[in-house]
Amino acid sequence: MNKSATRLLAASAALTLLATGCSSTASSSTAPSAGTGGLTIDAAFYPLQFVAERVAGKYGTVTTLTAPGIEPHDLELSPATVRSMQSTDVVLYVGGLQPAVEDAIKATGVPSFDAADAVPLVARQTGDLSFDPHFWLDPALVAEYALAVGDQFAQLDPTHADAYKNNAADLSKQLDALDADFKTGLATCKRHDIITTHEAFGYLADAYGLHQEGLAGIDPEAEPSPARLREIKDLIAQTGATTIFTETLVSSRVADALASDAGVTTTVLNPIESVAEGTDYFSVMDQNLAALRTALDCS
Known about the structure:
alpha/beta, Rossmann fold, 2 domains, 10 helices, 12% strand
């Protein structure tokens, strides 16, 4: 069954269960609602979860709808998960990226906040997407998003408005410092072309004067054509690139084969759609900066 059909079946099942009055029960990790001491927040996937946790602090409980290790583009929600969203105070999502999340928001009527209402998303047509959702790879845009999330939480829970806004301001300052580290770290490099498995790094490239070339487009499931692989091999020869960047959640099979054929290496550049245990947005972005500096021969 294709993903569209699966999504429609899940949404239909959720609507049926909602219509028959099935009640949802909060999981043991769910905090009190805004009226009794805090917010319950569903974040569509990791970067939004990270911001929500830092902004909410002790006054919110955050659940991610995309389990660690799962590619966010592939997310499908069970009817049980959709029902549980009825007790959530707000859902954070990126409109157009995960249709299953938007289906669930419509089915439940839960309050929601689209990241596109806080930060400008760049139009890049590829596959099913007409825009690039990966704004979180530009720390300056994440700083803007954090402040907007702070304002949203303050409106939903006025009792703790100052805490949310202060937490957002603190996070924004940390993100601005990370942005400064990237600007300094990538200011003097011998190369400026980054070759990636899929084009997740457009915001990062735009922010720091780099040029991204992806084997495939924004959709990580897209397979590059033989003609595209020949183009990338020629680009490697022309630019002197030494590295093809792979990812943690996407197969590196094609990239490894091309790297071997072109006589270059591969290394991970993480799009931070999910993180390993013991790491977070800041630590992974530090790893990304180190990988870029090595691959681009930055002084």
